[in-house]
Design a protein that fits this description.
Layout lengths: L28 E3 L46 E7 L3 H11 L5 E5 L11 E3 H6 L6 E5 L1 E5 L5 E4 L3 E4 L1 H14 L3 E4 L2 E6 L4 E5 L4 E9 L17 E12 L8 E6 L9 H9 L2 E9 L2 E11 L5 H15 L3 E14 L11 E2 L15 H19 L8 H11 L2 H18 L3 H11 L4 H8 L5 H14 L2 H10 L1 H15 L1
Parallel strand pairs: 2-3, 2-12, 3-9, 6-14, 12-18
Antiparallel strand pairs: 1-17, 4-8, 5-8, 6-7, 10-11, 11-12, 13-16, 13-17, 14-15, 15-16
Helix pairs in contact: 1-3, 1-6, 6-7, 8-13
């Protein structure tokens, strides 16, 4: 949901929304500073409300002002760990590993560039991680518009991550613990029995006992042994100056599923009924708001032009006139599908490691929480005098990130995604109407990936009990295949 402003999700790829499912919060987020092709919106009804598609974003990508310790070509190019990527995942892992006295290098073609995407998180998630000082705006409540007649108000705070504060905090800890940075792109990765090497695009070769790829979904280095049948979350978002908007300033809009804005757009309405999108909104004040039209999950991916057309129609109906676009972004998050091959010689963290929540798209908070877990495992292997390396090291780190229990939990989340893929607009509305009626422990825990497998099973039973009769029919008729697949995969994990 996303994270990513949200103002996911990387992306952890370049980097997480949030894009959303429930939105997300993490991810593949790309900043778009070019005017969308005319063909993307030439058929939209002309009005004063669709001009935002032609507005150039005011904000341009910037770099953070920080003096990092650079790798010197004259230095010995040998480290204990090399992390590819200086997104949230890469920097978090680098600083956590370096805290153990392990020699770390972070490799990125532009390590000081500001992350182009925006992230949104639940406030309690960052508070639990000691990162609450990296939130630059919070809302005490969130709301979900089920339809024109029903709105749910959720007593859980939501926040926008300050990309500048989070990046500076992570860079500061990296520098304080001796992490070296090299400004280059990983061109080739090779593995020997006890050592791996990276050939950079500047000709430099770096060596380490362990290489961790944190460069995101687009990485070609991580291997899979099963078909990558992802679902996709896609969104178009803008941080905009507006004449006004109808949303309460003390509530973040997690999802707005209303479709009355498509009343005069029969083709858009028909498509939306089959493959629904919702609006994710962060109101900062009466004239500044982040708006993002989001496809929760689809396979194949819903077209970007379709998402933008629906957003134009929605803003027109809401009476939101965009005066200026501060930032705009395209968010694409591969969700679910198989985990990478476990184990393999190259470790991963972030978007390409399977951490993205398969049913929500959230990534950032989960990555911030799991990086210390992975760092502890790495330290147990490389921080000891006996130095566990090679195949035993790869087994330990991959299974440290993905123990059997966590893999089983992810299978349940995958089941959630596969179920959502089968629901139309009305089915999706009924699903969330029941979901947010659950005990907060369960829906909080599901969205934040902190329920045990037993608690997830209890959640499923409770959700069926809270569901309306039509929703129960949806579950009984559309869930057997995903359920059978989940049970089969759980059995394989247990063997």
């Amino acid at each position: 949901m996303a994270s990513l402003l949200r103002l996911s999700s990387p992306p952890l790829l370049s980097t997480s929304r949030p894009c959303s499912s429930f939105p997300a919060k993490t991810p593949v987020l790309y900043q778009n500073t070019k005017t969308p092709p005319r063909k993307d919106h030439q058929r939209i009804q002309s009005s004063k409300f669709d001009s935002f598609l032609d507005l150039e974003p005011k904000s341009k990508p910037e770099s953070v002002d920080f003096d990092v310790p650079w790798f010197n070509r004259a230095d010995r190019p040998r480290f204990d760990v090399i992390v590819i990527g200086a997104g949230p995942a890469g920097l978090r892992l680098a600083e956590q590993v370096a805290r153990h006295g392990i020699k770390v290098c972070c490799l990125d073609p532009s390590p000081l560039s500001m992350w182009p995407n925006n992230y949104g998180v639940w406030v309690d998630e960052f508070e639990n991680l000691g990162l609450e000082d990296c939130l630059d705006k919070t809302w005490p409540m969130t709301c979900v518009y089920i339809n024109d007649q029903k709105t749910k108000y959720l007593d859980r705070g939501y926040g926008r991550v300050s990309r500048n504060n989070l990046k500076l905090k992570l860079l500061s800890v990296c520098a304080a613990n001796g992490v070296k940075f090299h400004k280059a792109k990983a061109w080739k990765v090779d593995h020997e029995e006890f050592e791996s090497s990276i050939t950079c695009d500047d000709g430099i070769e770096l060596k380490a006992s362990l290489i961790v790829d944190a460069s995101g979904f687009a990485s070609s280095f991580i291997e899979y042994d099963k078909p990558r049948n992802h679902g996709y979350q896609i969104a178009h978002g803008i941080l905009a100056e507006v004449d006004g908007h109808p949303y309460d300033l003390d509530k973040m809009v997690l999802m707005d599923w209303r479709d009355s804005h498509l009343g005069n757009e029969p083709n858009l309405r028909a498509n939306n009924s089959r493959f629904p999108t919702f609006l994710y909104a962060m109101p900062f004040d009466s004239n500044l708001i982040f708006l993002e039209e989001t496809s929760l999950v689809s396979r194949p991916m819903l077209s970007y032009s379709e998402v933008k057309k629906r957003m134009v129609a929605r803003l027109r109906q809401l009476g939101i006139r965009v005066k200026a676009v501060i930032e705009d972004e395209k968010c694409v998050i591969p969700m679910g599908g198989p985990l990478p091959q476990i184990p393999q010689s190259l470790m991963a963290i972030g978007g390409n490691s399977g951490i993205v929540h398969p049913a929500t798209g959230y990534t950032v908070a989960q990555t911030m929480a799991l990086a210390p877990v992975l760092a502890e495992t790495i330290a147990e292997c490389l921080g000891s005098t006996r130095m566990i390396r090679g195949t035993p090291l790869y087994h330990r780190v991959w299974n440290g990130l993905w123990p059997v229990e966590r893999r089983c939990i992810r299978e349940f989340h995958n089941f959630g995604m596969e179920t959502l893929l089968k629901l139309d607009l009305n089915g999706t509305r009924r699903f969330f109407d029941a979901f947010f009626e659950l005990n907060p422990h369960y829906w909080h825990g599901f969205l934040s990936s902190r329920l045990t497998l037993g608690e997830l099973i209890t959640l499923g039973i409770s959700l069926f009990g809270h569901a309306s009769n039509p929703s129960k029919l949806d579950i009984l008729t559309k869930c057997p295949v995903p359920l059978a697949k989940m049970v089969g995969n759980l059995a394989l994990e247990a063997i």
